């Protein structure tokens, strides 16, 4: 244990290792908060205690706390220390927070349902907007992503191509606010893929429906693009329900 702490302190002193140490502390503390080890609206231990537990300097801890604050997990106040904020104030669109939350079985199902509802509200409109404002090159990139889905050598490559297709569609909207949601979509798609692996079911990407979306966008038919994307997402929700039922039967 002492040797491990010594190695961490030595790494802490090296500037090129500081970022990775901060990331590790963010991950450790973020996971602990999401798991409920540090309940909402309670104080975290003092800096000296957490630093000693994690084997890092206070400077590294402070940098990590700043990042956790940006994610809406904690607040720091002079005189009262660090407080875990209520879950309703957490930034669930943050990819790290999503990842920590989705790794908790008690949170997973409801959170995925909420994320899929967000997709159903947003992505049909994204498809319609891409049909209206996407450039010729951006639309060609959409077809390239579809072809990658079709030719994917394995399930993982298919999922990554699926994510790329949706990213290309978001990019074709020329809207930074919408594009920032793409990270959330990627997390949901990977979560669905993990569930498909768990129940030994092919990770269904519905390539034919993706082609219909791309073709509608290419025709500049916003209504058709919206309708096909809505159908695709409905199939996704039905497939998710099927996988959950298979998992329940398996366990």
Automatic annotation (TrEMBL):
Tell me which species this is from: Kaistia nematophila
Any Pfam family the entry gives: GntR
Q: Where is the HTH gntR-type domain?
A: 19-87
Classification via Gene3D superfamilies: GntR ligand-binding domain-like, Winged helix-like DNA-binding domain superfamily/Winged helix DNA-binding domain
Q: Give the GO molecular function terms.
A: DNA binding; DNA-binding transcription factor activity
Nucleotide-binding as a keyword of this entry, yes or no, is no
Full protein name: FadR/GntR family transcriptional regulator
Q: Which SMART domains match?
A: FCD (SM00895), HTH_GNTR (SM00345)
Top-level division of the source organism's lineage: Bacteria
Report keywords, A-Z.
Answer: DNA-binding, Transcription, Transcription regulation
Q: Which SUPFAM superfamilies match?
A: GntR ligand-binding domain-like, Winged helix' DNA-binding domain
